[in-house]
Amino acid sequence: MSSRPLFTAFGIPVTFDPFFIFGAFLFYSWAGGGQRGMYTVVAMVVFVVIHEFGHALTAKAFGARAQITVTFLGGYASYAPSRRQTTRHRVLISLMGPLTQLAVAVPALWIVANRATNATSAEELRSTYDLIDAIGWAGVFLAFLNLVPLWPLDGGHIVESLLQRVAGERSRRPFLIGSVVASVMLGVLAVLIETDVIAPLFSGLQPPATESFGLRMVLFQLWQMPTNILGGALFLPLITGLGSASELGRINRARAHIHADDAPTRRELAREEVLRATRQAERSSWSSGFLAEYPSGWGPSPWVRAHVDLLAGRTDAAIDDLADLADGRSRHWLLDRPDHPEIDLLLTMVPPVAADGLAVLEARVHHGSPEDLVALATAIFVAEQSAEPLYLGAAGLAVRGLDDEAMLWLHRAVNVAPDPGRMAVDREFHGLHRRSDFQQLLGVAQRAVVPGAAR
How many structural domains compose the chain? Predict the structure, then answer.
């Protein structure tokens, strides 16, 4: 996704993915090309943007920062909540996309359809009917299609939010399995319709009679929903089936990565999934320059919030963000990579209230001078008498290639609280593994945490 928006409206940036051009060509060809194809592409773009603004403006009303991306076969709105999103918030955000789309498409279809009755030539009538088809399909039909309760459509997101309200995260996998099964069933029905096995059930569907041609066109879109959804080239079953199977596969792969002997609980599996999603959102925020959508209960780190504000020229807001690094503040964030080069500048802006905290020391492992690292680690250790600043000090010295000094700090850390797992796994200590004194110290730490081990 491009980090540079094509335009911004209502404080919401809108970007266009280059793959959108390929999608537009497919829609143009599918509609038959010519004037009809152009109308279809334009209507698709307009109503996709309107639809996503429905999501984004609702999210913004609930205090989130939002952005819109128009991509291959549609678009999506991403948002970063500044506070916990309730089930009502999530349902309304999902619902307002299709509703906003319909609020614009239905009057537009009515107006254009009534204009057809005043056409003065066959060419004008043909052009009007092409526009009616484009608005009816891109504006009305796709809005109702999005309300079908299958993943990854908006209706599926609404159902998922309601299920999680009742049964929690454990409801997600059964819902996705049900979405796959329902998609297969819809695919079978689509094939039966195409082969005229049950086509007569739908061929007689006619909207109620009305004198208004505009109203007749609107009702026609509703009455044709069963045929449109099930007919054609398996449009809906392919989207929902592949989308549901892909998401289900991702969840299954995440569960498989956890060793079976550990016997993880469902709560542990759910937490692992949330942490993975949080790290992914943090990584996306750093790379795009916009705050991504984070899982419920988690948010962007103060570092990336300050980075985004600084890019937008909001220096005072960036300093306020960095104040959240202070010890004692509730930490519901993760830093995907502590070595982001942008943190060098941000460290110079940390306000005094947070300058002596562990979060700042974690950043100084990869940034700043060794003297600043040692001074801060020493000050925190004197104040807290814990091993954490000692391990962080050793890690920072090892990163800078000061191996002898790093070993001295590791000795102190092991004396306070031996942690052989950390010594063996943390990548900052990998360069020390070849040293015999490190291996001896690792053995000391291992024996210290295993009662009765040979000495």
Answer: 1
- Kindly state whether residue 2 falls inside one of the protein's structural domains: no
Show Cβ contacts of residue 21 under 8 Å, excluding neighbours closer than 6 positions.
none
Residues 141, 225: contact at Cβ < 8 Å? yes
Q: How many helices (H) and strands (E) does the chain have?
A: 21, 4
Is residue 214 situated within a structural domain?
yes
pLDDT in tens, 251-290: 777 666 544 445 556 677 777 888 889 989 999 999 888 9
Considering only CA atoms, which of 268, 367, 351, 294 is closest in space to residue 317?
A: 351
For 337-350, letters b (16+ CB in 10 Å) and e give ebebeebeebbeeb
Residue-wise DSSP of 137-166: IIIIIHHHHTTSSSTTSHHHHHHHHHHHHH
How many angstroms separate the CA atoms of 440 and 455, rounded?
12
Q: Which of 105, 100, 65 lies closest to 81 in space, CA to CA?
A: 65
Can you tell me which residue has the tokens 């929903």? 225
According to the model, what pLDDT value does residue 454 have?
40
The region of weakest confidence among 84-88, 339-343, 399-403 is 84-88
User: Is 428's pLDDT higher than 60?
Assistant: yes
pTM of the model: 0.53
Structural domain includes residue 85: yes
User: For residue 142, what are its two tokens?
Assistant: 């796709």
Domain that includes residue 76, residue range: 7-253
